[in-house]
Amino acid sequence: AGVLWGPMAGYFALHSEPKLAIAPLEGPRMSFRIGMAVRHSDQEFKRLLNRLIQENQAEIDALLESYGLPLLDAQNRPLASAGRKSSVTATPHN
Fold this sequence. Notes:
This protein is mainly alpha-helical and 94 residues long. It has three helices and two strands. The chain is elongated.
C-alpha cells in the first residue's frame, strides 16, 4: 500500500509489473487546473496560444494519457477514455 499523487501514480501504474490497482482517496481534492498567463499587451500571443491548444487538444490529451495522468472534466470528475493504454484497475475507496 502507498499514497502517490495522481500523475506519478498513473505513470508507475502503467509501467509496473505486476499491474497495480489504484484507488482515489476520500477527502480534500488534490486536483488543480493548469493555467497560462501572458502580459496584457500580448493579446495576439494569447489568441495564438489558445488557438494552438484548441487545435492540438486531442494530441495533448493523448500525451497526458500515455503517461497515465488522470484527466478530469470541468466538475473534477474523471474522464472515461477509450484510448487508455492502461490495464490499471481504479477501485473506489469507501
